[in-house]
Design goal:
There is one protein chain. By secondary structure, the protein is of the alpha/beta class. It is 28% helix and 17% strand. It has 7 helices and 12 strands. It has a 4-stranded mixed β-sheet with strand order 1-2-11-12, with no helix packed on it. A 4-stranded mixed β-sheet has the order 3-4-7-8. Strands 5-6 form a two-stranded antiparallel ribbon. The longest helix is centred in the last third of the chain and has 19 residues. The radius of gyration is 20 Å and the shape is globular. It binds pyridoxal-5'-phosphate. Pyridoxal-5'-phosphate (PLP) binds next to loops.
Length: 249
C-alpha cells in the first residue's frame, strides 16, 4: 500500500477490499494536547459521508468545546437518525452550484439551535448591524441573494430524491469495483449505515494519473481532491499547523 499516490486517515478492511474515509478520526483527536487550547472542533462531512459525531460531541463536552459541522458536501445526509447540520452547536452549508443542493450561483447558510448565536450570525452577515449604518461589530456583506433563496427553496424539495440517485450510482460503482486488488485501488468507506450522500465518489489509486487520463479518454471527468493541503498552500504556509502528517498522505 505504500506505493499509493494518496492514502487517507482511517482505513477499514471491508468485504475483502480496503476502504478509506478521510473524515476526522475521533480516536486521533481524543487525547490531543491541541484541544486544550482549542475553542471548537470542526468536523467536515467530507465527500458526503457524515463524520462520527457521537464520539466527537463527547470529546467536545470533555474539553468544553463547540462543535461546528461543515455540511458543504453532505446536505440531506442522515446520521444517527438526524440530518447533518442539526448535530453540532452550529453548521455551515455551501450551496455552490456543484454541491448536492446547489443554487445557480454562490450561496450558503448557517444553522443552529442557539438563539443568541443565530442573532449574532444575522448581524455578521449584514455589515455587523441591526440598523442600517449603525455597525455594532465588524461584519460582512454575506446575505443570501433572494433569487438564490427562491431557487434553493424549490430545489430543496428534491434533495432526498437526488441523494437517493447518488446512493444508487455509488452502490453500482462499489459492486463493480469491489473485487479489485487493494494494491491498486482503495474504495471509499461505505458501510450501509454510514449514511453517505456521495457528493464525491473518492478512490485512492496507485496509478492515479494514468487512470485519470484513461477515464478522460472515455469521456469521464475526474478531479484530484485535494492536490495541496491548506497548511502547505501559499496562503497558509506560515500558519502554526505545520507538519500535519495525516493530510500529507
Ligand atoms: C467541505 C467544504 N467546506 C467549505 C466549502 C466552501 O463553500 P463556499 O465556497 O460556498 O464558501 C466547500 C466548497 O467547496 C467545501 O467543499
Amino acid at each position: 500500500m505504500h506505493g499509493l499516490q494518496s492514502l487517507s486517515l482511517a482505513q477499514y478492511p471491508f468485504s475483502g477490499t480496503w476502504t478509506a474515509s478521510s473524515n476526522i478520526d475521533p480516536a486521533r483527536i481524543g487525547n490531543n494536547d491541541l484541544l486544550k487550547n482549542a475553542r471548537a472542533i470542526l468536523p467536515v462531512h467530507l465527500y458526503g459521508l457524515p463524520a462520527k459525531m457521537v464520539p466527537i460531541l463527547q470529546i467536545a463536552e470533555r474539553y468544553n468545546l463547540k462543535v461546528i459541522e461543515d455540511v458543504a458536501q453532505a446536505q440531506g445526509a442522515i446520521y444517527d437518525g438526524r440530518r447533518t447540520g442539526s448535530l453540532g452547536h452550529a453548521a455551515g452549508f455551501s450551496f455552490y452550484p456543484g454541491k448536492n443542493l446547489g443554487a445557480f450561483g454562490d450561496a450558503g447558510a448557517v444553522t443552529t439551535n442557539d438563539d443568541d448565536l443565530a442573532e449574532r450570525v444575522r448581524i455578521l452577515r449584514n455589515y455587523g448591524s441591526h440598523i442600517k449604518y449603525y455597525n455594532e461589530v465588524k461584519g460582512y456583506n454575506s446575505r443570501l441573494d433572494p433569487l438564490q433563496a427562491g431557487f434553493l427553496r424549490v430545489r430543496l424539495k428534491y434533495i432526498d430524491e437526488w441523494n437517493q440517485r447518488r446512493i444508487s450510482v455509488a452502490q453500482h460503482y462499489l459492486a463493480m469495483l469491489r473485487g479489485m486488488s487493494a494494491q491498486h485501488i482503495i474504495l471509499p468507506f461505505a458501510a450501509d449505515d454510514a449514511g453517505s450522500v456521495w457528493h464525491i465518489f473518492p478512490i485512492h489509486c496507485e496509478y492515479r494519473d494514468a487512470l485519470s487520463l484513461y477515464l478522460q479518454e472515455q469521456g469521464l471527468a475526474t478531479l484530484i481532491h485535494y492536490p495541496v493541503p491548506p497548511h502547505l498552500s501559499k496562503a497558509y504556509r506560515w500558519h502554526m499547523f505545520q507538519g500535519r502528517p495525516i493530510s500529507h498522505n
